[in-house]
Design brief:
Layout: H1 4-16, H2 20-27, H3 31-43, H4 52-74, H5 76-80, E1 102-103, E2 115-117, E3 124-125, H6 137-143, H7 148-158
Antiparallel strand pairs: 1-3, 2-3
Helix pairs in contact: 2-3
Length: 160
Amino acid sequence: MITADQKDKIIEMWEQGMSGSQIGDNLNLTRNSVIGFVNRLKRSGHVFKRDEKDQHKKRVIEERKIREEKFAQKNKEIISTTPPKNIPVEKIPVLPTRFGGIELVDLKRTSCRFIISGEDSVTRYCGDEQNRGAYCEYHYKICYYPARGNLEKLVSSHSR
């Protein structure tokens, strides 16, 4: 419960431009109780002397500056280092165009569905006989690899 003395102090501090959190800290109240009291006063017709929008803008600007300064201090090393300007850019090698394969309309239920070329207007698929899943044995080995546990078992069994 807010006492009469606290109510007077809340009104005084609010008109000075203090935030609800600051007032709550000074009077050992929660921010929500201060804001709730101020809102009830406004609804009952009380007019405060402070321009809340300007006060709010000032607080936001001040808090933003403080956050930016803290961020700059924390990340001083990262911000101060500039990357070198002449970084060599490696080109991605162009994969050779493979000839052969089949088009989508020619795929059968048992045809390998690995795409071997798709740069041109028609996408072409491997088309060999499926061994596992949707791929032939060669393309299955490219697309899938055993889980680490199984891979370790395979390596240990071959090293014996």
